[in-house]
Sequence to fold (94 residues):
Amino acid sequence: MESGQRIQRNEQAVFRELAEGEGGVLLHLESGAYHGLNPIGTVIWGLVGDGSTFGDLVEGVRSRLTDAPAELVSDVAAFIEDLVERDLLIFSEE
Fold:
């Protein structure tokens, strides 16, 4: 995944945050499937907002961690790719 790759939320995805520090849950309105997010997944979902680049997402997560793991880039990429496969995030053309 390239740093400039733009990512945005699918309009069919609805998010609800759970209790503080507990993560969140996504519901795909069309399929009815629920998807749980851990606290870092919830941070990434929030950073995507109406659209963000992959590089901005990685830096946003890095800035929120006191000791970011060496594999942060690949972890964020895997998470994004998983949500794209589940049709919760989409790659935008912009």
Remarks:
- The first strand starts at residue 6 and ends at 9.
- The radius of gyration is 13 Å.
- The chain has a mean pLDDT of 92.
